Amino acid sequence: MRISARNRLKGTIVEVKKGQTTAHVRIDVKGIIVTTAITNEAVDELGLKAGQEAYAIVKASDVMVGLDN
Amino acid sequence: MRISARNRLKGTIVEVKKGQTTAHVRIDVKGIIVTTAITNEAVDELGLKAGQEAYAIVKASDVMVGLDN
Amino acid sequence: MRISARNRLKGTIVEVKKGQTTAHVRIDVKGIIVTTAITNEAVDELGLKAGQEAYAIVKASDVMVGLDN
Amino acid sequence: MRISARNRLKGTIVEVKKGQTTAHVRIDVKGIIVTTAITNEAVDELGLKAGQEAYAIVKASDVMVGLDN
Amino acid sequence: MRISARNRLKGTIVEVKKGQTTAHVRIDVKGIIVTTAITNEAVDELGLKAGQEAYAIVKASDVMVGLDN
Amino acid sequence: MRISARNRLKGTIVEVKKGQTTAHVRIDVKGIIVTTAITNEAVDELGLKAGQEAYAIVKASDVMVGLDN
């Protein structure tokens, strides 16, 4: 599937940690660790585990801009 | 200010394009272009322009995971 | 690409309306019109136009629940 | 209350599953299962349970568009 | 309608500014100006204008926490 | 850090409740309790606890408008 989300950052999953309903998946994107919070069901459906190539996907309207002072 | 958002990707602004109310700011993060949609007012308040160092900031719950097949 | 977003509602695009930076795309999903606000760039990249089959995609954490009284 | 959110999909709750802080509520909308992640407190305040008529509510800026290929 | 969103801040609309597709509505909540970005269609459907009592509504998962240093 | 998010509501943390992965932090803003859902990691990194001054931060595109009938 092709999606409209502007940001698709390719990397490698380094950690999958499930809670009771929400899981945290961490993806190493060029040395930057991107943290994602998704459902346990998504983790199971996609079979996510450390070592896999994956994308961190973010809609442009969900990105803010910050400046150091 | 320190914020709870898990993802703060440091880069350089490469484009600021204002619409009537919504602006698109593009940030080069290690060669990856991250697109953000923010208000024109935020662009003005922060004085955003190409060439500045800036962060693309994303809350973990706004990040999805994708796999190539 | 396979994505973690839990909600992928299949339908047909019935309207694409571009603003200066933000576009509204309406998708008919089993007779329900779903409105999406995405970037003009996404519309252009995907070549979205009325009549196409498309999915309205929503992360579970972006869905609220409402009750009639 | 009337709200600005463009998408209010009417259906029937088919499952309510609480975690420690986050609950997953599934709503059948014309045969499509919509998954929502909301707080346990919201589930309690609204008294959500399977069998109830309910709406899945989504702001237009939280909907993406996907295409098969 | 009753909704699951945890945050419903009551105030008075002080400004409605439409762009081509996206409008900015500002609500004074106890002296704090809350800025919202919604569709022009929502502004028209609800008939929003300055002087009206209104709520700024936010899902808990869309709120971050910040600290001064 | 200065951020583009339009809404930064100053208040006092009144409760921090951790789940397995997701925490709920409540902030009293001029007598209004604002509920936020953030990661446990953010709570730990910022050292959040009741009694602290803190900001509830929300991007304008994540705020909806509601009316009483």
What do these coordinates show?
The structure is a homohexamer of 69-residue chains. With 69 residues, the first copy, chain A, is mainly beta. Chain A has one domain: Beta Barrel (OB fold (Dihydrolipoamide Acetyltransferase, E2P)), CATH 2.40.50.100. Helices cover 10% and strands 58% of the residues of chain A. The first copy, chain A, has one helix and six strands; from the N terminus they run ββββαββ. Chain A has one helix at 40-46; strands spanning 2-3, 7-18, 22-29, 32-39, 53-58, 64-67. A four-stranded antiparallel sheet of chain A has the order 4-3-2-5. The longest helix of chain A has 7 residues, at 40-46. The first copy, chain A, is globular. The N and C termini of chain A lie far apart (40 Å). In chain A, 54% of the residues are buried. The mean pLDDT of chain A is 98. Strand 5 (53-58) of chain C pairs antiparallel with strand 6 of chain D, so a sheet runs across the interface.
Topology:
The structure is a homohexamer.
Chain A: E1 2-3, E2 7-18, E3 22-29, E4 32-39, H1 40-46, E5 53-58, E6 64-67
Antiparallel strand pairs in A: 2-3, 2-5, 3-4
Overall morphology of chain A = globular
Low-confidence stretches of chain A: none
Label the structural class of chain A.
mainly beta
Largest sheet of chain A: 4 strands, antiparallel
Topology, number of strands of chain A: 6
> Going across the major beta sheet of chain A, what is the strand order?
4-3-2-5
The arrangement of helices and strands of chain A along the chain is EEEEHEE
Mean pLDDT of chain A: 98
Please report the first level of CATH classification, the CATH class of chain A: Mainly Beta
Q: Can you say what the CATH homologous superfamily of chain A is?
A: RNA polymerase II/Efflux pump adaptor protein, barrel-sandwich hybrid domain
